[in-house]
Specification:
Length: about 700
């Protein structure tokens, strides 16, 4: 089917689908059932998501246009059509975002006596305080820059907040364009004295605007406005021609600040002449200008979210729990030898993963530690443990993926630290990102060499493990150990795995494996057998996989998809996908786990993976798919899928046109899957008997629970 022409009406554009995901995030900011500061957090996520979207995705589409490409995508859009629709939808999304801020959240903050004043709202004492603060703490940091014949337009940093001004001489015969960067080294929220019980602030840019005349003494300020630009973040890296990948990426990162301007955000009240000046200098069109009705870059709200003393404005406190299998085991190697251990983060703690590496670093019987790292935290205890292991004489090999977008600088830093500690560091593979998550520990025991493996759907990041839903597996299964050794030999050398017992790898075999699994369900349906697929992932945009799912649906396979973000498949289309449902869960935690279930004529097959159903994951990355053989672990994963399908609080159902709706119908008991996962973990931790009544299992998934 892959050679057949694509029926464009059957596919949704990936970029428009991504914007719909941001719409779902915005809905959480509007949801009054969420605590106030959590609503603010969702609003900031919309802003940071849009920044990355423009830097990467919109920049890519514009590059295609500049290159003169006319090829249509799977949804039938040319790059020009795509950019037009993206721009239209993004403008609406930003407008809705600021309506939410101005009409609801800003007013609610004020009601709770968290007040952000405008300059004309300051009283006499506050004006004096602000003047003193400006003179002592702000003005010395500022660098006003004027554009004239001798001074060209300055480099405006990506995502920096700036103030543009039109400045006239006293005779008002000549107008100059000037710009001042709002210093990021200063707090954007300036606290001012107030008689209120709560807290009162003014924005740093408003303080600067109040005193612009002090920066241009002898001149008149005619107009001014805050603005912010977004630049392309494409590194343009030539890996094939790079003699040293580390050096090449370091050089490319320096060039990122020069990327072309993709978007201009500016205050809605901007003077048209000032706007024209900026547009001309930045070489952008009217469609790329976003006039903002409020403060630019709402990520400043993170400072409010961090205010102490407002615990009731946050979600109830949450403490990840230790898995029950490890509660009475100080020796992790002994515990893993007894049984496979499933870690469902963030409900269960990430600490056992860190402890496993720490224990391995100190254990004289451990000979080697090998690990892939894609994104790690800023102060990673894992790096410390790996460094300590090397210093203790262990053979430590770490693949640090330098091409992890926006984490390149962080990963370069950690790679150099690991090398200094004596670790063997691999900088990824040319042409491929290593996205698979795997840890291998080789240990000498009485019966000989034994290998311990940890595999995961998410990154080895102790910070994000507290708010990403991911799943990890700890196992001493010798087949997993042999496969892990094969994989690391491939990553560090030239050998190609000739035979893998349990792991399936991309880009070699993963696409064909998924195709075979889907086709098996299709064949069973054609034979009149019950057939079912349930899959949970972050994104579904691969054309070939989507076509396979359409074929399965037409054969009668019941398919339930849980896709957090982009989904290019159209569900519930008669004679195409009427057996397919798609839902997205957006809640307190970022859904990040990848689980794949195939009914397999009653011999249920369950897999975990680092890969989404995306062309890049299947073709251009080193990814890992691994089966779950342990009956207890499999049963738990099926419960996770079942609960996710039964979520009627944070789940939205995808419509055939790519929009999403809350579930409709008769009143049912509300089920917030993330909340139930934590309550189950807490009950298990407290050794309370779990009520199976909580799980009215779906018919096909009930097979595994019979015993």
């Amino acid at each position: 089917m892959g050679d057949d022409p694509i029926h464009t009406e059957n596919f949704i554009n990936r970029e428009l689908s991504w914007l719909e995901f941001n719409q779902r995030v915005l809905e959480e900011a509007r949801d009054r059932s969420n605590p106030l500061f959590e609503r603010l957090k969702f609003l900031t996520i919309v802003s940071s998501n849009l920044d990355e979207f423009f830097m990467v995705r919109v920049a890519s589409v514009r590059d295609q246009i500049n290159a003169g490409l006319q090829k249509i995508d799977s949804s039938g859009l040319t790059p020009q059509d795509e950019l037009r629709l993206i721009t239209k939808r993004a403008h609406v999304l930003v407008k809705d975002q600021y309506i939410s801020y101005n009409t609801s959240l800003f007013k609610t903050l004020k009601k709770e006596e968290i007040i952000i004043l405008k300059p004309d709202e300051l009283n006499h004492d506050q004006l004096n305080y602000i003047l003193d603060y400006f003179k002592k703490s702000i003005e010395p940091v500022l660098t006003p820059m004027v554009v004239d014949k001798s001074r060209p337009f300055p480099l405006i940093l990506n995502k920096s907040l700036n103030i543009a001004a039109l400045v006239a001489d006293k005779q008002q015969e000549t107008l100059f364009f000037a710009t001042v960067q709002v210093p990021s080294v200063l707090e954007r929220l300036v606290k001012v004295p107030s008689a209120n019980v709560g807290q009162t602030f003014i924005l740093l840019e408003d303080v600067i605007k109040m005193h612009l005349a002090d920066l241009f003494r002898g001149y008149l300020i005619r107009d001014f406005s805050c603005y912010r630009i977004t630049r392309s973040a494409d590194l343009g890296l030539d890996e094939e021609g790079a003699e040293d990948l580390l050096e090449a990426i370091e050089q490319s990162l320096k060039q990122r600040k020069w990327g072309s301007v993709i978007r201009l955000e500016i205050e809605k009240t901007v003077n048209k002449r000032l706007l024209t000046e900026l547009m001309d200098e930045l070489e952008i069109s009217t469609e790329e200008v976003y006039e903002i009705n409020g403060p630019l870059d709402l990520t400043f709200l993170t400072n409010i979210i961090a205010l102490p003393g407002y615990e009731n404005f946050h979600y109830p406190s949450f403490q990840p729990l230790p898995p029950t299998q490890l509660q009475n085991h100080e020796d992790l190697f002994d515990a893993i030898s007894r049984e496979d251990i499933l870690l469902h983060h963030p409900f269960y703690s990430f600490t056992p993963v860190l402890d496993l590496v720490r224990q391995a670093a100190a254990d004289p019987r451990v000979l080697a530690i090998k690990q892939t790292l894609y994104r790690v935290s800023g102060h990673s205890p894992l790096i410390e443990a790996l460094s300590q292991a090397a210093e203790n004489g262990k053979q430590v090999t770490v693949l640090v993926e330098l091409k992890a977008r926006f984490d390149e600088q962080n990963n370069i830093h950690w790679a150099k630290q690991l090398e200094k500690a004596g670790c063997h560091v691999i900088y990824g593979l040319v042409g491929l990102k290593t996205h698979g998550k795997i840890l291998l520990i080789v240990r000498r025991e009485e019966e000989g060499i034994k290998r311990y493996v940890h595999l995961s759907t998410g990154n080895y990041n102790d910070v994000t493990a507290n708010f990403y839903t991911d799943i990890g597996l700890m196992t001493a299964n010798p087949y997993f150990g042999a496969d892990a050794s094969n994989l690391f030999n491939m990553l560090s050398g030239l050998s190609e795995p000739t035979h893998m017992y349990r792991l399936t790898l991309a880009p070699k075999d993963l696409r064909s494996k998924f195709s075979e699994l889907i086709e098996r369900e299709t064949q069973n349906a054609h034979a009149g057998k019950t057939a079912r697929i349930t899959a949970k992932m972050n994104s579904l945009i691969d054309n070939h996989i989507i076509e396979k799912l359409y074929e399965a649906s037409q054969a009668g396979v019941k398919i339930d998809l849980i896709v957090r973000g982009m989904c290019c498949l159209r569900p519930n289309v008669p004679d195409l996908s009427e057996n397919i449902t798609v839902r997205s869960i957006v809640g307190r935690f970022l859904e990040h786990s990848r689980i794949f279930y195939f009914y397999n004529d009653g011999q249920e097959a369950v897999y975990l993976s680092s890969a989404d159903w995306m062309e890049r994951n299947l073709n251009r990355r080193v990814e890992i798919l691994f089966p779950i053989d342990d009956k207890k672990v499999k049963k738990e994963l099926l419960k996770i899928l079942t609960l996710s399908l039964k979520d009627n609080v944070k789940a939205r159902i995808m419509n055939a046109d790519g929009t999403y709706s809350r579930q409709k119908g008769q009143r049912v008991r509300p089920i917030n899957s993330q909340q139930v996962f934590y309550e189950r973990a807490l009950n298990t931790f407290n050794r309370k008997k779990e009520s199976e009544q909580e799980f009215k299992f779906l018919p096909i998934l009930s097979n595994s629970y019979a015993n």
